[in-house]
Amino acid sequence: FAEILADGGAEDRATAVEVSQIIANEAAEMTRMVDDLLAVARLESTGLQIELSPTQVTDVVESAILPFERAGLKIKKAGVDAIVSTDAARLRHVLINLISNAARHGGPNIGVEVSTGDGVVDIEVWDDGEGVPDDQLERLFDTFIHNGAATLMTGTLGLGLGVASRLMELLGGKLVYQRFAQKSYFIV
């Protein structure tokens, strides 16, 4: 697509914008995959440095959503604000993985909602897709899961959810999957 633009193949502005958006989306996805590969390597070798500090949850949510919105994805946002002790960069990585999975494998409607109660802050990333098949639930958060020569879900490296789950453990939280009311929820 970059070659199309460089060669003047996008003769009108609408085509140029569309081709540019494809380049941006693919570059963002490639960056996410590289980040996941680096995170897995660090988790399995010397360890990953976690720097906890008071963090405004809505700031992290907004920074995770922004690249997707710039790429044209509509994400519904709701909930309350809270301050938690976490590593903002690692939490953002988790949310980016969850939003990316919702965009790639979920339904057309995606949302992020923050809620609080009993001293706990939940961040729900949801979509209205078909959900995870029952036979894949047990291994959903494992890294590099392959069924024969294929990853657990098509179009993936098998890293995103495994990395997100392990990062949440390091942050003192957890990542769970729930399906109800015709929606899939990944809850941090």
Strand content: 15-25%
Query: What is the CA-based Rg, rounded?
Result: 18 Å
User: Structural class given helices, strands, pairing?
Assistant: alpha+beta
Count of beta strands? 9
| Biggest sheet features | 5 strands, mixed
Shape: globular
Quickly count the helices: 5
| N to C succession of SSEs | HHEHEEHEEEEHEE
Mean pLDDT: 80
Distance between the termini: 36 Å
Give me the side-by-side strand order of the main sheet.
2-4-5-9-8
Low confidence ranges: 146-157
**Residue share in helix:** 40-55%
Description:
The protein has 188 residues and is of the alpha+beta class. Helix content is 43%, strand content 23%. The protein contains five helices and nine strands. It has helices spanning 2-6, 13-44, 57-70, 88-105, 160-170, and strands spanning 53-56, 75-79, 83-86, 110-117, 120-127, 146-147, 150-151, 176-180, 183-187. The strands form three sheets. The protein has a five-stranded mixed sheet with strand order 2-4-5-9-8, covered by helices on one side. A hairpin with a 2-residue loop joins strand 6 and strand 7 (150-151). The longest helix is centred in the first third of the chain and has 32 residues, at 13-44. It is globular, with a radius of gyration of 18 Å. The relative contact order is 0.14. Residues 146-157 have low confidence and may be disordered.
